[in-house]
């Protein structure tokens, strides 16, 4: 597997353009080509879980000069999230995207986005990270505006402007880091930054990174684009944006840079915890009043990302006992994986309801469990999961985060987390009452269940929601432990330098 | 020093343009200005007084390059970032044209169907 590591970016990049060329001749193969690329990527990502950490030197150049690709616990977990959810969204879009024109172009952009996100999570070079971040972002700007109607274009333009500012901030930070250390290699930076120590310039760099990646992760002061962009995109893209993109470009990048490069720091820790708590509260309060199904889900994404940010923040804190910091970090990463599963399931469900009923307004729907049993059941499971009902996965991660905060003495944050979990539950119970149960409107009396290609991803994701919750000690604990250890073990990251 | 300050002034001007102007074309220009200020900053990072291009010509000593040569890496980074900037600019302008087709205006305050 090690020799094939760069294929994670090479396959989607190549297939994106092959797809565009081949479909000039034959339009029917586009589904097949995209499926081939995504299926091979997903199976490779699952195989990567069994590899021990290693690094790959691109072009054979030794690390501080050449570009380094790094595979450790965190990268492999992220690769699995990106490629498996990418595969499911792709299967879903084979039917869903028939309502739009230009399907081959959609797959091209989709694969470019996958290539960018895979690149971000495997790279060990700062500038390389920026380039892949831009590839994924540009593809996602175009995908948000894919419908080319008034709303889509406006959302896309907003997202583009704010995303452009974020990318500029990230590049500014990278330029500063390079001028101070003379290197762009991330393990090498991890060696050189402690030698320089803390000064004003380093603080400025951290601020730029928190702003830039925080905007991509849509934490609250920078969240304005998300509730517009996510609902406007086609449903499989909303699932990818909310389920994967904000994690790969935002949370992953913040975690990697703050933990492995800068190391634990009281200031950054309290900033992340504060931003996390703020996102949690603001997101959930704005979500409660929404009528638009997908818009409500988008606000909940902001709120759930707050939990992850809080977990990361406590994990960075040098003043709490290491065991508690590790527990909070574990909770945060676990919640990130869970959120990827249940939020992409919910967005795909919203898309399925929209596909049949033609509306996104949840007050117009009702009683759909009688007409669309599979979609409604999966939607219920994912809603229970996000509201933190015990056997499902969302419960465990929220519990771990809350326990870690209570034990570490941050009682206020702990209570806020409980309050937000409660509000989330209320909001999703109302959703269930509006959409799934209740009286079936006359006009929807004749609708049918969505096609098999759309039901399959929903069922798989709902099964995962339950499986991750029930088999938590058997399977996923080891994976997330590995991801957590990769973040906390700075020496291991430096050892990728190969010295 | 004054040059670094110039890069910062450009950056802030770009941000001001982005925030204060309502016309979406002007917003695009603002984004482009911020991008250029970062490119200028990157070039300045590699700059040194009396520097020469880091190319080993015939009859040159290696020590000469070590003493006088500028750092080539930031220049490579600037090239990449200019190309990325071009891609973003093309996308921005095309979305802007589509927006004009739909709304018949470039004024961002009139393009407000979505409210957060």
Question: Nutshell version of this structure?
Answer:
Chain A is mainly α. Chain A has 19 helices and two strands. In chain A, strands 1-2 form a two-stranded antiparallel sheet.
Topology:
The complex is a heterodimer of chains A (499) and B (116).
Chain A: H1 7-25, H2 30-48, E1 54-57, E2 68-71, H3 73-96, H4 103-122, H5 126-144, H6 150-181, H7 186-196, H8 200-216, H9 226-232, H10 235-262, H11 266-288, H12 293-316, H13 322-357, H14 373-386, H15 393-407, H16 411-435, H17 452-470, H18 476-488, H19 490-495
Antiparallel strand pairs in A: 1-2
Helix pairs in contact in A: 1-2, 1-4, 2-3, 2-4, 3-4, 3-10, 3-13, 3-17, 3-18, 4-5, 4-10, 5-6, 5-10, 6-8, 6-9, 7-10, 8-10, 9-10, 9-12, 10-12, 10-13, 11-12, 11-16, 12-13, 12-15, 12-16, 13-14, 13-15, 13-17, 13-18, 14-16, 14-17, 15-16, 15-17
Chain B: H1 2-20, H2 24-46, H3 62-68, H4 72-103
Notes on the protein architecture:
The complex is a heterodimer of chains A (499) and B (116). Chain A is mainly alpha-helical. Chain A is 74% helix and 2% strand. Chain A has one domain. Chain A has a two-stranded antiparallel sheet with strand order 1-2. In chain A, helix 3 runs antiparallel to helix 10. Chain B is mainly alpha-helical and 116 residues long. The relative contact order of chain B is 0.14. Classes of the chains: A mainly alpha (499), B mainly alpha (116). At the A-B interface, helix 5, helix 6 and helix 9 of A face helix 1, helix 2 and helix 4 of B.
